[in-house]
Amino acid sequence: MTVKVQQKDFEASKEVAAMVDGCRNPGAIVTFTGLVRGHEERGKLEALELEHFPGMTEKQLEKVEGEARKRWDLQDCLIIHRHGPLKPKEQIVLVACISAHRSDAFEAASFLMDWLKTEAPFWKKEIYSDGTSWVEAKDADQEKAREWNK
Amino acid sequence: MNLLYFAWVRERIGKDQERVSPPDAVKTISDLGDWLCTRGENYVHALEDRKKIRVALNQVFVSWDQEVFKDDEVAFFPPVTGG
Prior knowledge:
The complex is a heterodimer.
Chain A: E1 2-6, H1 12-22, E2 28-35, E3 39-40, E4 43-44, E5 47-52, H2 56-71, E6 76-82, E7 84-86, E8 91-99, H3 102-119, E9 122-128, E10 131-134, H4 139-147
Parallel strand pairs in A: 1-6
Antiparallel strand pairs in A: 2-8, 3-4, 5-7, 5-9, 6-8, 9-10
Chain B: E1 2-5, H1 7-13, E2 17-19, H2 29-37, H3 41-47, E3 54-57, E4 60-62, E5 73-77
Parallel strand pairs in B: 1-5
Antiparallel strand pairs in B: 1-2, 3-4, 3-5
């Protein structure tokens, strides 16, 4: 059960292989990797600058991961979230969940991503050739995170 | 009291952190916001629309009516966009 907040890139396959080694009886792996999109409504993106709140970010990720472990039967769980300037197609976030049966891993991974959107203190600034804009939090993301509490 | 600012709140205020000694009348984060806004237009511009600002006390999300004390760390920032 690990969270990492880092500037450097990650290799999902290596991370997952190390997790599998440590599991007692793995039967299902679900991984989600989030990438920087190169095209947004405003146009072609040059870069995405991710700012975060050092200290609070780690605490929030650990809290969210702990919540997932309470709700589902997970043998291991990993969140890696990058910060700093990232180019289109670069990886931003990795969530990996390992369980005996697929439904636990699928649901936990989905839950973790929904909660990261609303609970992890990151902010994204889009850099365009003609200026910048901060990404606004979406009501739809708030709603998805709330759905898990029904 | 240590204050931290992130994202466009940081840009509008023009700094990422500062130490302040608010008057005794400042009991809550809401009072703190009001007091900061008396210190300059940059604070008003950053903090006037409270629906768009989230606050954390000692690295935990709280509401504006939360009490604050002199050794606390208070962070002001826009709604988060992780993931």
